[in-house]
Specification:
By secondary structure, the protein is an alpha+beta fold. It is built from 20 helices and 27 strands. It is globular.
Length: 729
């Protein structure tokens, strides 16, 4: 028999062990409806009855009684004094109303008795037999009488309820205090403890407490709500999981969770941040985690950024011509969209989303999405997509996009493109400036590939991307008629296909991208097309990329015990470092931008941040660290000119660096409070030169690279020392 991999289970009471959740809901409704009717008569307020789904589950369920009263009243914009727990039931205070609810609950409970969930009791008995500790954590002050009435006292080793919370001054759900206190009482660690909850506030508490497993019971068909609020596993009944299911989570599920970040909803207000966190990349390029169907706007911002891709533009600001160099949003290789029976193209922000799940696997750099949407004609469609930017071949990207009609048959129209007609629009305060960095060069189709070439308007770097589309219907290859629709700065394909309900249409999109300043590249369009034609085996592309990631993680992974959140955060930080600067960067003349290959903030400029980052590369990838320092060395002459222009000797490196090594700090800055432009003095910061000297010395002590010091490092140190010596005169 397998040894238990967990030590304790802390159960919520109502809705988990006992069938009293509906009794509570009925008591809350009875009490609030009476009170709201009183307010209608007393204050002439319109009466809107208390709803189980909209009010109880959202504002009351799982919370301490008085907090539940406060939360619901706030939702109705009703303010009452808190009062005292000794207030009479029905008194117009938060405590008085809460006490009235308790009176109604006890009356109902006395009349109806207590029923338990048989499956939960069976699991509790099994846990007891295996020596696993059992506790109850409940916001209810009636937990003791309820457990006694249910005859379950003998199974419970500790009970932290509303009474104990008041005595110990514990915070109620969604804070984890009652669960952590139950663990402390049992003498068990949080990482080897399971929390079982049926309320949104309860799974939030379990998630905040960093427990080994938060198991949500969807008694109200609220699976998605529980997942969105922090449940690791959701089931309608605990029997669906059982002891073996919990064991399996601690055996493999927990390990998988520590390699992934997931979102179980689509939240417009958080989407741009999530797109950043879901970025995939390989150091040569990074692609934000924007959905394939979206365009740049208030809630979404697709972006692909390539190491070293800068462009300068002049803008008229406050009556002056101001030149800024920007990190360019390169060719967007992601766009795929569809419409049904000649309707509108899918717009994520204007359609009903029934399900939305996205998971980034940091172990292999793979981003997966699954959504179910319903249009105005009630047609439901499942969308699945998988994407990677290859860590094996820096120029390769793969997108697999699947469409399944769930409740209809009809014609699915699909379009897919490579797009270069956009502007840099990722930073709100830059929008007053000129941001059109790309101009069209060529587009079309060659050897079965779509291709697009654009160039930066000032730096004259040509970008070329190619895409090969393979289409399958229910696992059978099809050759749909491709309708070419090329536009300026866009290479597009589109086709129509008749689908039956339950069929799946798969569009596999293999892409490649090159820059004209890549080492050894004379014709980026030819290179992009050739790379796509030579790489038609998607499974091999995925396998090679996974193997490359495995090699990286073998070198860098840090494994922790006892803190699942810290473990995930460590890997998340390392993942984002590696998609910004990877072994591919050994051969790229580029530093580490302040926001990585994730966006346009700080214009993609390079500050002194590598001071904090290079020790990681010194330890694991010294050749990468050397390449970052060589980026500075190649701009040493520019740093000498900068020092001389300010009356100093030696080399003074700029506060913000880009392509050439000159000072790229903006001359004018938009004050986000006043909305006015004013002088920007941040270029007066000089400590970047000290950081570079520190990085040179630190790299030498890590690597013992005497050849580097003799040919490059010593010269940099000497020039920086000259600068500081002259600045003291």
């Amino acid at each position: 028999m397998d040894k238990p991999l967990f030590d304790a289970v802390i159960f919520d009471l109502d809705g988990v062990i006992t069938q009293t959740a509906l009794v509570h809901s009925a008591a809350w409704k009875n009490m609030f409806d009476q009170y709201l009717k009183q307010r209608e008569k007393k204050y002439a307020e319109p009466y809107i009855e208390f709803s189980h789904k909209q009010d109880y589950l959202k504002y009351v369920d799982g919370k301490p009684r008085y907090e539940g009263v406060r939360s619901f009243l706030q939702s109705r914009n009703i303010e009452l004094p808190y009062g005292s727990p000794e207030d009479l039931p029905g008194e117009e205070t938060i405590c008085g109303i809460g006490n009235q609810k308790n009176r109604v609950f006890n009356q109902t409970l006395e009349a109806q008795g207590v029923k338990s969930y048989e499956s939960t009791v069976c699991l509790m008995n099994e846990l007891k037999e295996k020596g696993i500790r059992i506790g109850v954590a409940s916001s209810s002050k009636n937990a003791g009488p309820v457990l006694t009435a249910a005859g379950l006292d003998q199974l419970i080793e500790t009970r932290v309820d509303g009474v104990a919370s008041a005595e110990l001054n514990l915070r109620g759900k969604p804070e984890p205090d009652i669960f952590t206190t139950a663990c402390d009482n049992l003498g068990v660690t949080y990482d080897r403890t399971v929390v079982v909850e049926d309320a949104e506030s309860g799974v939030q508490a379990g998630s905040k407490g960093n427990f080994g497993l938060v198991l949500g019971l969807a008694r109200e068909n609220n699976e998605l709500a529980l997942l969105r609020n922090g449940a690791d596993i959701v089931a309608k009944d605990i029997a669906e999981v059982g002891y073996e299911g919990i064991q399996e989570w601690f055996r493999s599920g927990l390990q998988q969770d520590q390699w992934t970040i997931s979102y179980h909803d689509y939240d417009q207000g958080k989407e741009k941040t999530r797109e950043t966190l879901l970025t995939v990349g390989n150091g040569y390029l990074g692609t934000r985690g924007a959905m394939e169907e979206v365009t740049a706007g208030e809630h979404n911002y697709p972006g692909t950024y390539m190491a070293g891709l800068y462009n300068r533009l002049v803008s008229k600001v406050a009556g002056e011509d101001i030149e800024n160099e920007d990190f360019v949003n390169a060719i967007n290789w992601l766009p795929v969209n569809f419409k049904v029976d000649g309707g509108k193209w899918l717009d994520i922000n204007h359609i009903e989303i029934l399900e939305a799940n996205r998971t980034l696997n940091m172990r292999n750099g793979m981003l997966k999405k699954e959504m179910v949407v319903r249009d105005r004609d009630a047609k439901q469609t499942r969308i699945r997509s998988t994407r990677i930017v290859s860590m094996h071949d820096p120029h390769l990207m793969v997108l697999s996009y699947n469409i399944t009609p769930l409740n209809y048959s009809g014609t699915i129209s699909v379009k897919s493109c490579l797009s270069g007609d956009h502007i840099n629009a990722g930073v709100e305060r830059y929008k007053q400036l000129q941001q059109k960095h790309l101009k069209p060069v060529d587009s079309g189709h060659r050897d079965g590939c779509s291709f697009l070439s654009v160039a930066t308007t000032q730096s004259e770097i040509q970008l070329s991307a190619a895409a090969m589309h393979r289409v399958r219907h229910n696992e059978h290859d099809i050759q749909p008629e491709l309708i070419n629709d090329d536009g300026e700065g866009i290479a597009r394909i589109s086709f129509d296909h008749l689908m039956n309900q339950g069929d799946t249409l798969t569009i596999n999109k293999i892409c490649s991208v090159y820059k004209s300043d890549d080492k050894g590249i004379s014709d980026p369009a030819f290179s992009a097309i050739s790379t796509v034609l030579e790489n038609q085996d998607i499974e091999k592309i995925l396998g090679d990329s996974t193997a490359a990631w495995n090699d990286i993680w073998t070198k860098i992974d840090i494994q922790l015990e006892g803190d699942r959140l810290a473990q995930k955060l460590l890997r998340l930080h390392m993942y984002h470092l590696l998609i910004t600067t990877s072994p591919h960067n050994q051969h790229i003349d580029f530093g580490i931008p302040a926001r990585g290959l994730h966006g346009e903030a700080y214009r993609g400029h390079i500050f002194w941040d590598e001071l904090y980052i290079l020790p990681f590369y010194n330890l694991h990838f010294p050749e990468i660290a050397k390449s970052i320092i060589m980026y500075r060395y190649r701009r040493l002459e520019e740093a000498r000119k900068y020092a001389e222009a300010h009356g100093y000797d030696g080399a003074m490196f700029p506060w913000q660096s880009g392509s050439s090594g000159r000072e790229e700090t903006q001359v004018l800055h938009l004050n986000p409070v006043s909305g006015k432009w004013g002088p920007d003095h941040s270029s007066l910061q000089r400590h970047v030169s000290l950081a570079i000297a520190y990085n040179v010395w630190n790299y030498y002590w890590y690597s013992d690279d005497l050849d580097f010091m003799a040919s490059n490092g010593a010269e940099m140190l000497a020039e920086i020392c000259k600068f500081w010596a002259s600045s003291q005169l």
